[in-house]
């Protein structure tokens, strides 16, 4: 099997799984307990927090553990909105955000908040000038993803950061789920970014665990109240084995990237070079300022789900753009925001790579794609 759906989820690393199992067996105490088993668990939490903070070059107290990217996005948007509503009820998101941001914003609109969506260019990049025009005196938050999960555009976070330097009271949130370990951290975790969301299963950690970066000095309300864990910021008994395994996975993936920094980009380039020769293939992902692991294409006249299943029969796993909406048979929201026609957008598939993929797999994919292209050409 060739697995090219790494933006949907990644296989847990053996090192991470081993850490999870060993921690589950040996350190099963509640970190809030006073006895030595609790102290032992709390010590592991502290170590994991510091490891993650060091890798991102931030302070340990700026890392807060969550259940994943969706919780992180919900928390930052709602926590900011509720905390800052005495000062304003206007939020700005981009038109290509993940549903975890977009649907949260829609829910906040039901609560009386005003939401504006910053448009993107035909290539899928947030138009910073138009975003600037949306800022008002009562704007309390701007949320823009670092890397789009469907077409892989690296958003102009540095440029937006420069814009928001003029608005120090506005919270700036970045959904960095698709960026971490794939795009250099300083491209999206700028000094102006106040919050960032992360999910472990996107970088070979366990599912159901993640974290947010929360800049020291910024305030937002807690969504999960109860026992006061995470310094009263996020209640609920911490999932110590998953958190420790997440930190281990992140370290291993960063190390692998350092060993082969251009590996993903080389794989993607080989795919683009191979696919460009087909007249009926449209490539949506940008060649410049695009993440090295995501390639979104369409085979004209063939619906995305048809091509996905045809490749699946050949044991090649890809997806129709976002995995979160792939079963709904709807066109990509990102491609719609890019003004791609509905007929072409419904033909889109997403190929998402990982450090474990090889050039031999790319070559095998192109062989199978050639066969399917000829097959579909007879009926299309």
What does this molecule look like?
This protein has 380 residues and is of the alpha/beta class. It has helices spanning 14-26, 36-56, 69-84, 99-110, 128-134, 157-164, 240-259, 263-275, 304-313, 333-337, 342-345, 359-377, and strands at 2-3, 63-66, 90-94, 114-118, 139-143, 171-175, 195-199, 210-214, 281-283, 294-299, 316-317, 348-352. The longest helix is centred in the first third of the chain and has 21 residues, at 36-56. The protein has a 7-stranded mixed sheet with strand order 2-8-7-6-5-3-4, with helices on both faces. Strands 9-10-12 form a 3-stranded antiparallel sheet. The protein has a two-stranded parallel sheet with strand order 1-11. Helix 1 (14-26) packs antiparallel against helix 7.
Q: Helix count?
A: 12
Query: How far is the N terminus from the C terminus?
Result: 28 Å
Question: Order of strands across the widest beta sheet?
Answer: 2-8-7-6-5-3-4
CATH architectural category of the largest domain: 3-Layer(aba) Sandwich
Largest sheet: 7 strands, mixed
- Which spans of ≥5 residues are poorly predicted at pLDDT below 50? none
Globular, elongated, flat, extended or rod-shaped: what is the shape? globular
Strand count: 12
Specify the CATH homologous superfamily of the largest domain: Type I PLP-dependent aspartate aminotransferase-like (Major domain)
The helix content is 25-40%
Q: CATH top level of the largest domain?
A: Alpha Beta
CATH topology of the largest domain: Aspartate Aminotransferase, domain 2
């Amino acid at each position: 099997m060739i697995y090219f759906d790494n933006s949907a989820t990644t296989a847990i690393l053996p090192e991470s799984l081993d850490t999870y199992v060993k921690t589950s067996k040996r350190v099963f105490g509640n970190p809030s307990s006073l006895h030595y088993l609790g102290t032992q668990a709390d010590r592991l939490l502290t170590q994991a927090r510091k490891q993650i903070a060091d890798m991102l070059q931030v302070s340990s107290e700026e890392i807060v553990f969550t259940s994943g990217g969706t919780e992180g996005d919900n928390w930052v948007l709602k926590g900011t909105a509720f905390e800052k509503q005495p000062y304003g009820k206007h939020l700005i998101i981009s038109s290509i955000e993940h549903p975890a941001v977009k649907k949260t914003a829609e829910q906040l609109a039901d609560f009386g908040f005003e939401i504006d969506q910053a448009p993107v260019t035909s290539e899928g990049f947030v138009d910073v000038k138009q975003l600037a025009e949306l800022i008002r005196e009562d704007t309390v938050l701007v949320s823009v993803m670092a890397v789009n999960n469907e077409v892989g555009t690296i958003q102009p976070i540095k440029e937006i950061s420069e814009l928001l330097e003029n608005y120090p009271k506005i919270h700036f949130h970045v959904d960095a789920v698709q960026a971490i370990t794939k795009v250099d951290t300083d491209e999206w975790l700028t000094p102006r970014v106040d919050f960032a969301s992360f999910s472990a299963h996107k970088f070979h950690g366990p599912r159901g665990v993640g974290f947010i970066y929360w800049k020291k000095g910024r305030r937002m309300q807690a969504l999960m109240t109860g026992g006061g864990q995470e310094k009263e910021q996020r209640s609920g008994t911490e999932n110590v084995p998953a958190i420790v395994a997440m930190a281990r996975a992140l370290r291993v993936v960063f190390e692998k990237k350092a060993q082969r920094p251009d590996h993903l980009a080389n794989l993607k380039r080989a795919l683009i070079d191979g696919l460009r020769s087909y007249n009926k293939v449209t490539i949506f992902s940008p060649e410049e300022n695009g993440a090295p692991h995501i390639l979104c294409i369409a085979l004209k006249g063939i619906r995305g789900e048809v091509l996905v299943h045809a490749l699946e029969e050949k044991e090649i796993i890809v997806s129709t753009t976002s995995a979160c909406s792939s079963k709904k048979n709807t066109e990509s929201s990102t491609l719609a925001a890019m003004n791609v026609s509905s007929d072409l957008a419904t033909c889109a598939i997403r190929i998402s790579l990982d450090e474990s993929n090889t050039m031999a797999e790319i070559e095998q994919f192109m062989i199978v794609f050639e066969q399917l292209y000829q097959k579909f050409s007879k009926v299309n």
